[in-house]
Amino acid sequence: MAAYADWLRSRPGLPKLFVNAEPGFFLTGSQRDFCRTWPDQSEVTVRGAHFVQEDSGREIAAAIAAWLPGTDR
User: Fold this and answer.
1) At a CB cut-off of 8 Å and minimum separation 6, what does 24 contact?
2) Across the chain, which distance is largest between two alpha carbons, in Å?
3) How far is CA 64 from CA 25, 33, 58, 59, in A?
4) Is 56 within 8 Å of 48 (Cβ atoms)?
5) Residue 28, beta-bridge partner list
6) pLDDT tens digits for range 46-71
7) What is the pTM of this model?
8) Is the CB of residue 63 less than 8 Å from the CB of residue 37?
């Protein structure tokens, strides 16, 4: 995970979407704060705890659909 985090941090210009969950379960506190330090990252917050993709699947899909056109990818 450390190598992947380093890779994400070292890729300015690479668009990233951070899907934050409230209240969250796994990615909270300092780990969440660390993820927010990556360059060229957008963030969306959805409702969810343990299985965020199940709790807020439609919201995540809508966030990706809104974010992707702005990435020019």
Assistant:
1) 32, 48, 49, 52
2) 32
3) 21, 21, 10, 9
4) yes
5) none
6) 999 889 999 999 999 999 999 999 88
7) 0.85
8) no
